[in-house]
Amino acid sequence: MKIQSLIVMGCLLLGLNGCGVQSASVIPPEELQYQTYLEARKPALLRKIGIIEVGHSSAGNIMRSQVALKNRGRGEAQFRYKFRWFDKGGLELDPEGSPWVPVSILSGDVIRVQGLAPSPAAKSFRVVIDD
Amino acid sequence: MSNLSRFLVIVSVAVFMAGCASGGSKVGYVDATAVETVDESFGSSDLQQIAAKMVQDMLIFPPVVQATASRRPVLYIDRIENKSTEHIDLASITDTIQSKLIGSGKFRFVDMDRLAEINQQIAYQKKSGMVDQSSAVATGRGLGAEYALYGSLSSIVKRNAGTKSVYYKFTLKLQHIETQSVEWVGEKEIRKEANRALFGS
């Protein structure tokens, strides 16, 4: 009986934890518009890290962008990011040119990262994240 | 020796041999732009981070934006001094910086290390009698550099019983040759720390 109670309690706790994870993974409506800028191989990372703000500028005719990354999850998030730049035809520019940059964001915190396009041919960008 | 002792000895030997077998090297390709932290010495990630930051900082600097708005100024790379405690091929950093600056479409370069070879090629075209003079290059048409890029890499190393900390600072300067004014200075700082475990690797 004791073991059965423990098993039931364990399942309940797992279930509640699952609910907790789900509630942390819901993207707020005001952030949905920015999610097209974000790419990740792992869905779990996408549930944890989101873009809450996007800024554009230019250095002459070279595109310059800034995104605000927020850690929506519990605990510190350690990952790496890079900007990917695309020309007007959607072709990636200098795909091997930019290095991965390691960052860490505390739970609920926001960091702003910037990127400069490799050439004036860049018309759009994505931020790729990986852990 | 009891059966249990014999069994334990055999298992220990087997585990040891398995460890030896798995110690063989395994080679594969990895992402060249991935963060590399094999040890605390200067590495590929540091080179890439430095080059990326120097180029970005230079290209967004308003006077540089203005100078490159309608033309591509000519640069040459002067000495990058290694003031660090390590042997580092700084030409790798300047090659990457040069590649990115040319790729941006904002600058052109003259390579001062290639003067002898260029002169040799010109002499061959003009004097060897082997080249159709209508296709030979004209002499005296070389571009004059307007700016010089130069800088240095320094390091500070500190260690105690369990920790080694290495701090790098890369400085790059853009100097206008005619006026000798320094038009832009960029810096990139990197700190790496290695903590050694008391036991094991």
Task: Tell me about this structure.
The complex is a heterodimer of chains A (131) and B (201). In chain A, 26% of the residues lie in helices and 42% in strands. With 131 residues, chain A is of the alpha+beta class. In chain A, strands 1, 4, 5, 6 and 8 form a five-stranded mixed beta sheet that branches. Chain A has a three-stranded antiparallel beta sheet with strand order 2-3-7. The longest helix of chain A is centred in the first third of the chain and has 24 residues, at 2-25. Chain A is elongated. In chain A, 22% of the residues are buried. Chain B has 201 residues and is of the alpha/beta class. Chain B has a domain at 47-129 and 143-199: Rossmann fold (3-Layer(aba) Sandwich), CATH 3.40.50. Chain B contains five helices and five strands, in the order H-H-H-E-H-E-H-E-E-E. Chain B has helices spanning 3-22, 44-60, 62-67, 90-103, 115-127, and strands at 74-83, 108-109, 147-159, 163-176, 182-195. A five-stranded mixed beta sheet of chain B has the order 2-1-3-4-5, with helices on one face. The A-B interface holds A 59-60, 62, 64, 80, 82, 94, 96-102, 114, 116, 118-120 and B 31-35, 45, 48-49, 52, 55-56, 59-60, 65, 68-69, 100, 103-106.
Topology:
The complex is a heterodimer of chains A (131) and B (201).
Chain A: H1 2-25, H2 29-32, E1 38-40, H3 43-48, E2 49-59, E3 62-71, E4 77-86, E5 92-93, E6 101-105, E7 110-116, E8 124-130
Parallel strand pairs in A: 1-8
Antiparallel strand pairs in A: 2-3, 3-7, 4-5, 4-6, 4-8
Chain B: H1 3-22, H2 44-60, H3 62-67, E1 74-83, H4 90-103, E2 108-109, H5 115-127, E3 147-159, E4 163-176, E5 182-195
Parallel strand pairs in B: 1-2, 1-3
Antiparallel strand pairs in B: 3-4, 4-5
Helix pairs in contact in B: 2-4
Fraction in helix of chain A: 25-40%
**From the helix content, strand content and strand pairing of chain A, which structural class follows?**
alpha+beta
- The share of residues in helices of chain B is 25-40%
Q: List the quaternary state of the chains.
A: heterodimer
What is the percentage of strand-forming residues of chain B? Answer: 25-35%
